């Protein structure tokens, strides 16, 4: 594709809001880490984050990029992770989009978002935060490290256990993406990855 009519913008000229908008529109689709944590007082928290990716396979590490609140305070998820050193990344199926949206709303730290979204907590093997029964894949994580290279706090977690719903696995035990039907995020909308295709080589 010829790109003859190109707009070039120096990042230094952009407001933080505009840069954020361009990044969200350019880096798509983004997977959603429907992240469960637990406060030191035992209150369960559930929140979605689309700035999420894999860092390493050995050891298995995943990364969450967490914004601060407008007040400058850590979001509940980040505060819980730093206090307890544990979290669970639940992969959200597309059918759960409404519940994911419910848990994206900022509420008081005393509110249990599992109850708010009418979803089901299940115990994990190694960590205190619950995993999500409605999630086909859940990753139990222990905090590996945090770093702040810019405005957001990067939380890196080591995956210590994988929970896999057999219904999304093929005969060889591999995850079938069409069965998983994961929810994703574009600039300002939810998205799904179907129909899938494989390019002929």
TrEMBL record:
Keyword annotations of the record: Flavoprotein, FMN
Single GO MF annotation: FMN binding
Flavin reductase like domain sequence ranges: 25-178
Cofactor: FMN
UniProt cross-references to InterPro entries, sorted A to Z: Flavin_Rdtase-like_dom, Split_barrel_FMN-bd
A Pfam family matched in the record: Flavin_Reduct
Tagged with keyword Transmembrane: no
Family: Belongs to the flavoredoxin family.
Record protein name field: Flavin reductase like domain-containing protein
């Amino acid at each position: 594709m010829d790109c003859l009519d190109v707009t070039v913008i120096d990042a230094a000229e952009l407001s933080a809001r505009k840069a954020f908008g361009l990044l969200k529109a350019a880096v798509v689709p983004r997977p959603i880490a429907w992240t469960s944590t637990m406060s030191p007082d035992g209150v369960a928290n559930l929140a979605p984050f689309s700035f999420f990716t894999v860092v390493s396979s050995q050891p298995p590490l995943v990364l969450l990029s967490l914004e601060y609140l407008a007040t400058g305070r850590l979001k509940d998820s980040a505060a819980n992770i730093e206090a307890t050193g544990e979290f669970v990344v639940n992969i959200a199926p597309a059918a759960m989009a409404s519940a994911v949206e419910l848990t994206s709303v900022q509420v008081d730290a005393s509110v249990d978002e599992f109850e708010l979204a009418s979803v089901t907590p299940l115990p994990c093997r190694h960590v205190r935060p619950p995993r999500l029964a409605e999630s086909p894949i859940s990753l139990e994580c222990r905090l590996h490290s945090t770093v702040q290279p810019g405005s957001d706090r990067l939380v890196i977690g080591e995956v210590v256990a994988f929970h896999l719903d057999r219904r999304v696995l093929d005969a060889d035990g591999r995850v079938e993406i069409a069965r998983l039907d994961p929810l994703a995020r574009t600039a300002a909308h939810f998205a799904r990855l179907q129909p899938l295709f494989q390019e002929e080589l």
